[in-house]
Backbone:
């Protein structure tokens, strides 16, 4: 019983002192302005959530892979903006098979500034007001990611632009 109390106390302490920064595939983020950062040592991207019905999504800035037309989209000024452009996208939706039941309340939130909760809807919510997410960095993803998945996003370090994959082709965006 004493071991359980000590373990619980340590977990609570770790939870209250944990940084609001997350590094995936690496030891730490590159600077204090980063909320979520991916390693750039491998040719991998980030896959957006596959969404069948986007009618209930109202949070501007939300990014999804829309399975109805196979496009990567984000919500801007309450309207969906198409990142894919190309209309020939495809996706194997069997990876979302019937045995994988969606949990409507499932959420991961990365918060800072003393925030411990968020009411913002979403699967992954970055609740920082002064930090950003850094996408996985890949040189020429259309050449180096051998088997990309529909809904994949990366930062192309060669062309210095956003790259999104709709299941058939890559689309590149530059500000």
Residues:
């Amino acid at each position: 019983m004493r071991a359980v109390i000590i373990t619980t106390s340590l977990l609570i302490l770790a939870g209250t002192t944990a940084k609001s920064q997350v590094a995936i595939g690496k030891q730490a983020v590159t600077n204090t302005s980063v909320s979520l950062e991916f390693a750039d040592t491998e040719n991998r991207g980030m896959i957006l959530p596959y969404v069948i019905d986007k009618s209930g999504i109202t949070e501007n800035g939300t990014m999804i892979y829309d399975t109805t037309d196979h496009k990567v989209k984000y919500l801007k000024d309450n309207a969906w903006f198409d990142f894919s452009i190309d209309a020939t996208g495809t996706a194997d939706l069997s990876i979302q098979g019937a045995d994988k039941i969606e949990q409507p309340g499932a959420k991961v939130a990365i918060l800072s500034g003393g925030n411990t909760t968020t009411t913002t809807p979403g699967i992954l919510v970055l609740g920082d007001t002064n930090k950003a997410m850094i996408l996985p960095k890949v040189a020429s993803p259309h050449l180096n990611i051998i088997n990309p998945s529909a809904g994949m996003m990366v930062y192309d370090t060669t062309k210095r632009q956003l790259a999104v994959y709709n299941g058939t082709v890559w689309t590149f965006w530059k500000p």
Observations:
- Residues 1-18 have pLDDT under 50 and may be disordered.
